Amino acid sequence: MTEEGLIAAIARLIPPARHVAIGAASPIPAAASFLAQEMAGNLRISLLYQREGNPFTDGTGELFDLAAQGRIDLFFLGGGEIDGAGNINLIGIGEWPGRTVRFPGSFGSAFIYMMVPRTILFRLEHSKRVLVPRVAHISAPGTSPPGVFRRGHADALVTGRAIFRFSPERARFTLVSVHPGESEASIRAATGFDYDVADGLAETPEPTEEELALLRGPVAASMASIYPAFAARLWPEAPARRSA
Amino acid sequence: MTEEGLIAAIARLIPPARHVAIGAASPIPAAASFLAQEMAGNLRISLLYQREGNPFTDGTGELFDLAAQGRIDLFFLGGGEIDGAGNINLIGIGEWPGRTVRFPGSFGSAFIYMMVPRTILFRLEHSKRVLVPRVAHISAPGTSPPGVFRRGHADALVTGRAIFRFSPERARFTLVSVHPGESEASIRAATGFDYDVADGLAETPEPTEEELALLRGPVAASMASIYPAFAARLWPEAPARRSA
Amino acid sequence: MRLVDLETLAGMLPAGAMLAIPPDNSATPSSFARALVRADVRGLRLVGVPVSDYATDLLIGAGCVAEVQSSAVSLDEAGPAPCFTRAIKAGTLRMKDATCPAMHSMLEAAAKAIPFIPIRGILGSDLLAHRPDWLVIDNPFAKDDPIVLLPALAPDFAVFHAVMADREGNVWVGRHRELAVMAHAARRTFVTVERVIDRDLLADAHLAAGTISGAYIEAVAIAERGTWPGGLTGEYPDDAAHLAEYAALARTEEGFRAYLARYVHKRPAKRPAEAAE
Amino acid sequence: MRLVDLETLAGMLPAGAMLAIPPDNSATPSSFARALVRADVRGLRLVGVPVSDYATDLLIGAGCVAEVQSSAVSLDEAGPAPCFTRAIKAGTLRMKDATCPAMHSMLEAAAKAIPFIPIRGILGSDLLAHRPDWLVIDNPFAKDDPIVLLPALAPDFAVFHAVMADREGNVWVGRHRELAVMAHAARRTFVTVERVIDRDLLADAHLAAGTISGAYIEAVAIAERGTWPGGLTGEYPDDAAHLAEYAALARTEEGFRAYLARYVHKRPAKRPAEAAE
């Protein structure tokens, strides 16, 4: 699936969120959020660690306070490993703290995964290396026992090949959509964890004309000021940046 | 004693403090601090709740964080009542919260009295009404039991009539100096709590020529921008305000 | 963000609300307080950030207040707060006495959405016995180290006055970070401003540093000289004469009624200070 | 406040010090880090506020670092931090993994001088098992509500880069309030700046809101383009090409040595970016 298709697929998952926040180095989630904003109108986007378009005036900690207050509806997280129970591992593999493979670290995941009502897990690579039966180390748990303060869980897992939905009650993913060129079998073969398959398993739709027009117009312009390299690669013809 | 004399007497108590902070509505302690700064040079003065000369850029809570960090050496506190054990009452008299007499409230006293190494208690009125055997309610305790985190205590009590020093070990004041026109007996008669008298009981010296010159020059100028009414009353001939 | 007029803003505050307001040395919403008196909003639970002044005293005198939680209520140089003092003596006001850093810390805890926060000091103060919501525990990180825990304080509303807002509801508060803490802590925040500007406050690096994001601001109303008789840093000084007049009049019930009639219910044309009110 | 040159400032940092530095998206002191490498300061315990980047990786590669406490170490768009990753795999670096809001909260607790602070979340993360200094208690204000308590983290030193300082040592950091928290939390704070200005930052209401008082600042050095290859908001952009070059070279020990020789020990005249270094 094209990156534009992926962006459009993620954008469709964002409503009814009214305030989405995005961490560092997340161009596809950022573009998806700008697209959702163009489609839905009333969506506030808070970009962490960006010089432009940064609404935080109380330092880089403000995002986490906002999340703790329940003022952020949706966040994006990735993972060096993601398992079938929704656990994510940003630490590494092998003896702690990652003597075999070391990932960068947990960032805000151990906190924000439990504070926001909905998280979209996003990882472009869809392989048995990434989507594992059980993560080597848990940066942030997919579910929590009763009594532990938690506002939400993974809502969906989006990869370069498919889209899953997550059930916190069952701590289990359901495959709901495969991207063009993939099949139920190809996803099963590439996925290290067990999961259910939705009755109406769909193919992820290609972007509509309207979505493409918005992506190549206002979304490209917004992205150019925030992720210039990414925007220049996807939309070399896009108009100059608009002020964020 | 004149107000200038009182200011000079307090200024002499301030060294060796390097950072003094002053709360709201405290013109005499503020003037004393400016005088001490002129005399000693290297003294940082932090004025709370003042539009001019306010170094706090993290809100009105920053002073308390500074005090908690141990970065303030000396603070001034008053009291609706002050007792012989150094307890101060800013709440009121009679049934809580002051059904007979109500003072404004405790301000930061319950915290800052315990956080700063030295506190100068200052109350112009020296009477049995203010200096009582036992305060009706304790806003901030004069001493604390072992094990309670506390950096310091009252260093001195300055009134319009005399100066006492405080011993935290004995939880008791010692009269060290009476202002001109007062005597050991007149102070005893006006004080509601019991206290010791220093062997070398002195008369509080009048301000020196140098102190008077500084008061009427740079101190008056600094005060004019912060306590204009006070400065205009004391030093009607003073030069225009200098920028704080 | 909604831009409304002052009377509308006052009308959006429900009876019984817990309302945090800063004192004059920060950015007290005096015009808003007078509008609340006119709207006859009752049963307010006022929170001083961290102390309280004219606006609180006025609301108490007008019968709008059921409870005050604050570190002090006074008119500063103009002396004690007369209506507050009268109400305490009469026993008609529920007073939750606190100390300044505790007020800040309780709001900071709410802004971080943590349920409690420790604070040094206070042990040995009679405040503790009268604050059953303040606990003393043994510091779990040390031996024999008692310490006070304060609960988070999340007011229903925060209201303050500021120099300016922009069209997105971003509000410039300068170095008054306690106003940002209030806005972060409160469930909803209303702001009165001297003026609304057309440029984006967050787009200017110098202004952005002193700006609260419109994400926290629910409604804004223009109230020129909105802290009067308090001053506003960089805009206008305190009106010490008026505060003294208030202090003198409010010393009696009759005087206070006269004050209300003269300065709150009737808005004299000759006072350009509050043309917008 | 002392105004010193960059090499002197680096020499003022003792071996073994706990040093808090922000990442590039804030105001990473890259020139200072290179000066530390030149000064061969050893045994540093680095604290990421709340994450770590080029400066940390460089110091690790140069053998200056005994311990890192951070939420993540990476070169962002330029990929993983090569020296950090190598040191973790080799077991030569003590790593105290954390999560961003915990780093902020531990520093905020130190800034308030409270011994601990609660934080939501984290329960169920393996971070907890590897942080014996993080406790889980039952929230004393509720029933059956486990919550994590973090200890205060007061670094020996905080060092960051900023646009400007004035002659009193006041430093303008704009909206980067986390730098104020660092300075409040640390025992001593050093700052590198693009320039020192003659006017008083606290005297200008707009600038004051983004200024840290010189009361917290021990020493300042001028380091032009001091975050390079990181950018500085409003001054210059990231040098993505250089970061990519660093990432490529640092992938091997030999490459890293070449990088040090080319960009750290030898300061090429043709790089006007760092004339002051």
Write the layout of secondary structure elements.
The complex is a heterotetramer, with two copies of chain A (244 residues) and two copies of chain C (277 residues).
Chain A: H1 3-13, E1 19-22, H2 27-40, E2 44-47, H3 62-68, E3 74-77, E4 81-83, E5 88-89, E6 92-93, E7 101-102, H4 109-115, E8 118-123, E9 131-132, E10 153-159, E11 162-167, E12 172-178, H5 184-190, E13 196-203, H6 209-226, H7 228-234
Helix pairs in contact in A: 1-2, 2-6, 6-7
Chain C: E1 2-4, H1 6-11, E2 18-21, H2 30-39, E3 44-48, H3 54-61, E4 65-70, H4 82-90, E5 94-97, H5 100-112, E6 116-119, E7 135-138, E8 146-151, E9 157-166, E10 171-172, H6 177-185, E11 188-197, H7 205-208, E12 211-212, E13 219-222, H8 240-249, H9 253-265
Parallel strand pairs in C: 1-13, 2-3, 2-9, 3-4, 4-5, 9-11, 11-13
Antiparallel strand pairs in C: 6-8, 7-8, 9-10, 10-12
Helix pairs in contact in C: 2-3, 3-4, 5-6
Distance between the termini of chain A: 29 Å
Tell me, what is the CATH class of the largest domain in chain A? Alpha Beta
Q: Helix-strand pattern of chain C, N to C?
A: EHEHEHEHEHEEEEEHEHEEHH
Question: What is the CATH superfamily classification of the largest domain in chain C?
Answer: Glutaconate Coenzyme A-transferase
Number of helices of chain C: 9
Give the oligomeric state. Answer: heterotetramer
* CATH T-level topology of the largest domain in chain C: Glutaconate Coenzyme A-transferase
- Percent helix of chain A: 25-40%
